Each structure stands twice: as C-alpha cells, then as structure tokens.
Amino acid sequence: MSDWNPSLYTRFEDERTRPAAELLARVPLTQAVQVVDLGCGPGNSTELLAARYPAAHIVGLDSSQAMLAAARERLPALVFEHGDIAEWSPAAPVELVYANAALQWIPDHERLLPRLMAAVAPGGALAVQMPDNLDEPSHTLMRETAAGPRFAPQLGDASALRARILSAERYYDLLAPHADVDVWRTTYHHRMDDAAAIVQWLRSTGLRPFLDPLTPELQALFLADYTRRIDAAYPARADGRRLLAFPRLFIVARRST
C-alpha cells in the first residue's frame, strides 16, 4: 500500500485519541522506566504516554515514514523509530508495551500476542486496542463495492490485507497463563456531519487497501459508489448528523511478577 497520510488521519484526531486515552486509563502502572508505543502514527497516542509517564524513556515505532515525520515534529524530545511490529523485539523487557489501533494490521495473533507479552518486564503491562468493525456496514460495504465488475479485476481480495481479530475469550486464554488480563469491548457512536465525512474518516484507514490499487479515475468511481451506499446505511439523525458505530476491543494484561 501507499504510505499513510498523517493530515487525513488527524482530521478526526479527537475521535481517534479517545480510545487511546481510555486504554491508557486502565493501565495499572503508576510509573514506568521504558515505554514503547507500537504503531505510534502521528504521535497522538505517544503524547498521552509522555504526559502519564514524564520520567520514562518512550520510543514510538511505526512502519510509515510520513507518520514518523509527523510524530517527530509533534514531539521532538522523544525517540521515534522506523520498524515493523511483526518483527519488533526489544533489547530488554520493558514496563509498558502499548499498541493503539495498530495490531489489526498484523497477522497471526496466536503467535503475536504471546510474543508481545514476553517483551513485558515482570510487573509491567501490555495494553492493546483494536478496531473490531469488519462486520459493520462501513466495512461490509467496502467489500460489496469492491466486488462490483468495475473494480473486482483490479482489487481481487483487497480485504485480506487486514486480518479478522480473535475473540475476546481467545485473547484472554492466550495471555492469562502469563498475566492478569482485563479485556472489554466498547462501541463508540461517532457524530459525523454527513456521509462524506464518514468516507473521509475511512479513507485514511480501512479504505486504503481498496483505493491504493486503483487508478485515480477508478478511485473516484469507487468513492462515489461507496459514498452512496454509506449515505443509505447511515441515515441522518434528528439533528441531521450521522452516527458511525465503531466497536473496539481492549486488552490490558499485567505480567506476573
């Protein structure tokens, strides 16, 4: 896929940062020496970590050079590194491994989550938040649009680039032998101005695998078709706005001492 677009991503920064803050609020660590923000993006989540743990050495990791540039501009005093979460391994265990809205892009969670848990120091924590919205209209309509005769030859199975996450029960079973696990699911209902705003939200994330393989002309046709479907699926509420339902799965696992 093409590189991420930080300015498009941060257009809805308040909505994207809210689950990051709610994840961090449940982390049971009053202090930390080493903190890693996996999939740090433009630094909005890293900023929360820096405010919570001002004395910690905090490293943000991301595979997008554009996102890293935005994060470094936002937080010049912190360390940001280019890397792949699937291959990340710290030189020594750290007190907090934090991953907000990133792991859904990484496959094989049966191996990934225990490996990340192993990177946590005794008494430390793994904190994870992932969108759990592949069955929401926002995403089923992406797949329906992509299956149309104008787009299917170019897209194939574009949806395969994001794996379906596991159940809350399975994550619990993977981590409970090593940690005290807190897992929960929250559905946010984001107020959006109109159908076009919902599409703009998704252009920076879920729509990327569907748009990147297309020519500019086909991208415009795809977006027009998809926007019509979104307009029907998310009707105007009493004040004229739309509500975008967005389920997210949260995990906080504190490693045994």
CATH topology: Rossmann fold
CATH superfamily placement:
Vaccinia Virus protein VP39
How many domain modules? 1
What is the molecular shape? globular
Main beta-sheet annotation: 7 strands, mixed
CATH 2nd-level architecture = 3-Layer(aba) Sandwich
What's the mean pLDDT score?
93
Overall strand count:
7
Uncertain segments: none
Count of discrete alpha- or pi-helical segments spanning 4 or more residues = 11
Structural class: alpha/beta
- Strand line-up of the largest beta sheet: 3-2-1-4-5-7-6
Order of helices and strands: HHEHEHEEHEHHHEHHHE
Strand content: 15-25%
* CATH C-level class: Alpha Beta
Give the N-to-C terminal Cα separation.
41 Å
Q: Radius of gyration, Cα only, in angstroms?
A: 19 Å
Explain this structure to me?
This protein has 257 residues and is α/β, with parallel strands linked by helices. It has a single domain (6-255), classed as Rossmann fold (3-Layer(aba) Sandwich). 39% of the residues lie in helices and 24% in strands. It contains 11 helices and 7 strands. It has helices at 6-9, 13-25, 44-52, 65-74, 109-118, 137-146, 152-155, 168-175, 195-203, 208-211, 216-233; strands spanning 34-38, 57-62, 79-82, 94-100, 120-131, 179-192, 242-255. The chain has a 7-stranded mixed beta sheet with strand order 3-2-1-4-5-7-6. Helix 4 links the parallel strand 2 and strand 3. Helix 2 (13-25) runs parallel beside helix 3, helix 6 crosses helix 11 (216-233) and helix 9 packs across helix 11 (216-233). The longest helix is centred in the C-terminal third of the chain and has 18 residues, at 216-233. The mean pLDDT is 93.
